[in-house]
Amino acid sequence: IRQSNKSRKSECYVMDKGNKMKNLRINNRFTAELPADPDLTNEVRQVKNTLFSYVNPVKPSNPKLIHASEEVVDLVGISKDEIHSEEFLNIFSGKEILPESKPYAMCYAGHQFGNWAGQLGDGRAINLTEVENNNQFYTLQLKGAGKTPYSRTADGLAVLRSSIREYLCAEAMYHLGVPTTRSLSLVLSGDQVLRDVLYNGNPAYEKGAIVCRVAPSFIRFGSFEMLTARNELKNLKQFVEYTIQHYFPEIKGEPKEQYLQFFQKVADTTREMILHWQRVGFVHGVMNTDNMSVHGITIDYGPYGWLENYDPDWTPNTTDRQNRRYRFGNQPQVAQWNLFQLANALYPLINEAAPLEKILDSFIIEFDSEYKEMFLSKLGLFTSSEADDKIIKGLEEILQLSETDMTIFFRNLSKIKKDDSVEQAFEKVEYAFYIPEEIKGNVLDAWQKWFAVYLKRLNSELLSDEERILKMNQVNPKYVLRNYMAQLAIDAADKEDYSLVDELFQLLKNPYDEQPEFEKWFAKRPDWARTKVGCSMLSCSS
Ligand code: AMP
Ligand code: MG
Fold first, then answer.
1. Which of 186, 237, 311, 533 could lock 67 by a disulfide, CB 3.0 to 4.6 Å apart?
2. CA atoms within 13 A on the CB side of 508
């Protein structure tokens, strides 16, 4: 092990050649092809005319591996046998850096809660390297690995609590079929981190942790917004072309045509991602434009949450309690708004508003029709007619009359048989009600009416009950990472018991399977979790 470039003022060491992980194929396109910040000092500042700054992770005092995803380790080209090696721990805690790699933080800007925020950048994320495996490129990024020129007033660190949430949720989302960044490893840093969880003047020390996350790239809408806002149009052009060449090679044609096709692709993949969020009941919580990936993958798991009782107005993020901008039901509109910001950022290259507006306008129209199809599939209806709009609207309304667990309701709906009576059908979903005493009078009436229409409609479908249950169970997960589940894993991990992190990790690998041994996780949120911090209330403090 030899010491790295001293001018970078870091305590990092470069791993010796002849090391393990020799199968990793390092290929740093981003830093090789795009303009770097010539200033190597790791000081908070405005970083202009560049896309990234070289910066090494801070050396953790006593790193310890909590968990690693074998699948992701394999995906990027590391042998599973190496997970428990010293090298693995050292690299993914930031203690050492890989040979032939120069870690860097990316410069980007963004709109936060609807307002222009100027330069943001990777304040606590450090890209270790890009690797190539099986003709795919992956960026390996540490989150919580120390300060960068973009850290503003913060410490560049992450706490165990939020790291467990990110680590577990990204993998859970992947296995649900939702486009997402992946999690490679979860490591304790051995350092203490000061956080004021509720922003109420009660800071406390928490355990620090580092997640290594993996994505094709970490390019965000805000990466382009930054260049346009600063009128760095040469860099904008170069960066858009870089992105198209490496990540959208199918795009061909005149430059302008290419930029428009690029925007269309980002709109399409973003729409697909949001559709999945609405399908599984995921609320991102901080859909700022700096948290929107150009790959249409879910990125930056902060104060996210899962719908328990179906409520389109729900947001897990306490910082957003007032306006509820990022509430469940508003996610498609926010995605469109964010795309509008991306369109503005690309405009100087296109100089024509109409084609961009056309893509933006069709976003919601296409979303609505795809949403209908998706919702019907959750109901086991695989053909669609005009009349189905009423079934969907009707159900969305009744689900809110009394607290009804979204995941349990849809999962149990598949148990209904075509020749069930209304009463028999209703009994099969009763477990989803949080307050069964409320299901009487008008509410019960509404349910009975809805089920009468639904049963009739089911009978017009060609699929048999057996065929339908199989298909429904592929779109309605049995297990999701409920907020209280993550919190239980966090509470145990805080006491150095990581068994629940592993149990949830394993459970959520097969969210659509019955897994009878895990049946206890097919349960409504317990009462204690209703108002507990971390379960129903989350802040951006992480
Ligand atoms: P987020 O809301 O987590 O997406 O973060 C918004 C911006 O704040 C990004 O530029 C982050 O890099 C930065 N940031 C968040 N937490 C920290 C931290 N603890 N230290 C430094 N920068 C941070
Ligand atoms: Mg972010």
1. 186
2. 23
Q: Which ligand is nearest to the CA of 112?
A: 1
Continuous segment of H or E residues that includes residue 243: helix 233-247
Cα–ligand 2 centroid distance for 299 (angstroms): 8
CA of 469 to the centre of ligand 2 (A): 39
Query: Is it the case that residue 28 has pLDDT exceeding 60?
Result: yes
CA proximity to 131, closest of 157, 107, 100: 100
Average pLDDT, the chain: 95
Which pLDDT score, from 0 to 100, does residue 11 have?
46
User: Could you write out the DSSP letters of every residue in 100-126?
Assistant: T---EEE--EEEETTEEEEE---SSEE
- Span from the CA of 506 to the centroid of ligand 2 (angstroms): 27
* Residues contacting ligand 1 via CB (< 6 Å): 120-124, 150-151, 154-157, 286, 290-291, 300, 302, 540
* Ligand 1 binding pocket mutation candidate from 106, 151, 206 (most atoms within 8 A of CB): 151
315-340 residue pLDDT tens? 999 999 899 999 999 999 999 999 99
Site to substitute for ligand 1 among 47, 124, 211, most atoms within 8 A of C-beta? 124
Q: Whose CA is nearest to atom 15 of ligand 1?
A: 123
Half-sphere exposure of 473 (CA within 13 A, CB side): 17
Residue 52 corresponds to which tokens in the numbers above?
Answer: 């990234």
* Beta strands, E only, 304-427: 305-306
Q: Which ligand is nearest to the CA of 108?
A: 1
The residue whose CA is least distant from atom 6 of ligand 1 is 120
**Catalytic annotation, residues:** 290
Q: Residue 15 above 70 pLDDT? A: no
* Nearest alpha-carbon partner for 48 in 201, 230, 301: 230
Instruction: Read off the pLDDT of residues 219-252 as tens digits, 9 standing for 90 and up.
Output: 999 999 999 999 999 999 999 999 999 999 999 9
How many A from CA of 432 to the centre of ligand 2? 34
Cα dist from 79 to 73, 92, 346, 502, whole Å: 7, 14, 41, 20
pLDDT at position 12: 55
* Among protein residues, the one whose CA lies closest to atom 23 of ligand 1: 123
Q: What is the mean pLDDT of residues 162-190?
A: 98
Length of the chain, please? 542
Cα 260 to Cα 250: distance, rounded to the nearest angstrom = 13
Structure tokens at 540: 């951006």
Q: Shortest CA distance to 542 belongs to which of 277, 286, 175? A: 286
The span from the CA of 480 to the CA of 483, in Å, is 9
- In terms of Cβ atoms closer than 10 Å to its own Cβ (0-12, 13-18, 19+), residue 119 is buried
